[in-house]
Design a protein that fits this description.
It is built from six helices and ten strands; from the N terminus they run βαβαβαβαβαββββαβ. By secondary structure, the protein is α/β, with parallel strands linked by helices.
Length: about 260
């Protein structure tokens, strides 16, 4: 018998967003790999523990992986810093899987949101095949992403009829909205790019801690609400110690076809 690795999308913050397939996957885990990031707080770890308690009677073996530091926010070469971090992660994970996941056993990661959207777990686990003998087969269980949650919470479609929507890291919008794009979902905005770009003709739909009791939603013309978002965001991050947020920037009058 071979061994299997499950990447289980657990949704963006509401335990009710776990799918039936994800719940079944949690119940068959022999080993769960838990990534402890330097920025993570107890409530993020507790959320995963709560899911395990809700959906199984016993506790799987837990293997903790202490994440390497993430230097790219200050590194002069962003791509090189990310590549170094991923290599460090890959080496650590390969050793853990080889040591902890025996023949015929099933391991898994509980992945926040969806494993296929702005999440490095899938790419790193895929690369394990080149590092260890008899690599596990990989199965991906999709989850409700923060993008889907944002759309639902604001009660808006992501795309408008006949138009595309772009999903982009914030660093690619430092110079403003792309000229040929009307709708952009912005991810990973630790520098609050929305507050520094030209707001003319733009609306913003912003959400933080989506699906949790601490959920925050703000929407409106960017020039009118960007200062409010910046203040609310800073206060919430200072209070909780971490921030998960995303937003949609939308041209009020579409231009591209």
């Amino acid at each position: 018998m071979g061994r299997e690795m499950l990447l289980i999308g657990i949704g963006a913050g509401d335990p009710g967003w776990l799918t039936f397939e994800a719940a079944e996957a949690i119940r068959v885990l022999d080993v769960v790999f838990v990534v402890l990031k330097e920025s993570d707080k107890d409530d993020l770890v507790d959320f995963r523990r709560d899911l395990l308690r809700r959906h199984r009677d016993d506790a799987p073996v837990t293997v903790e992986l202490v994440d390497p530091p993430r230097p790219w926010q200050s590194a002069p070469d962003y791509d090189a810093a990310v590549a170094q971090w991923r290599e460090q992660r890959l080496t650590q994970w390969a050793d853990a899987v080889q040591d902890s996941l025996g023949e015929g056993r099933t391991g898994g990661f509980l992945v926040w949101g969806d494993p296929g959207l702005y999440e490095s777990t899938l790419a790193i686990v895929t690369d394990l095949a080149e590092r260890i003998p008899d690599p596990p087969t990989v199965r991906v269980i999709p989850g409700i992403s923060c993008v889907a949650a944002l759309s639902a919470r604001h009660r808006i479609p992501l795309n408008r009829q006949g138009h595309a929507v772009q999903i982009s890291p914030a660093r690619l919008l430092a110079d403003g909205m792309p000229a040929d794009v009307d709708d952009v979902v912005v991810m990973l905005d630790g520098r609050q790019t929305f507050a520094s770009i030209d707001p003319t003709g733009l609306d913003i739909y912003w959400g933080a801690y989506l699906g949790t009791p601490q959920e925050i939603l703000i929407a409106g013309p960017l020039e009118e609400v960007r200062d409010e978002i910046a203040q609310v965001r800073a206060e919430a991050k200072a209070s909780r110690g971490w921030m998960f947020d995303t937003y949609l920037l939308r041209r009020r009058t579409p231009t591209s076809r």
